[in-house]
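Before drawing any conclusions, I needed to go through one protein's amino acid sequence and its backbone structure tokens, quoted below without any editing.
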Amino acid sequence: MPATRVGVDTRGQQMFGRKAKADAEWLAGVSFFDGFTQDELERVAALAREVDAAPGAELTEQGRVGDVCYVIVEGTAGVYASGEHIASLSEGSMVGEMALIDHAPRNATVVAETEMVLAAFDPRSFHQLLDEMPKAKERVFATLNARLNR
């Protein structure tokens, strides 16, 4: 399926998106979705958009309002606050969710460190995910709680 351009970071690195896939195979084995039934994975696949990101692509920018969050399917991303590297995230991690929940500017910049495959959720699909899937909601709020208690 041909990719469509969805973003370019400040260094010109591109991110490409694909439409949601009907099958959930690309999400199988991602730790964020451990324990989801096949039907649940298929619903997640219908809500998400698969996005590829090249190394250096900026997934989120500190201080900007968020309009998407991601679950990392493959690859690694660096998290930066005020230019300082504070963490690396990999498969199964969710990024950008806090801005969609509290409608506030992003707390950190997240940059692809490797080639990445991401499950992207716009605000509507993210809130549908939380409303329809208690497991997803529980994992998102556990992630938020862990980040806020650091």
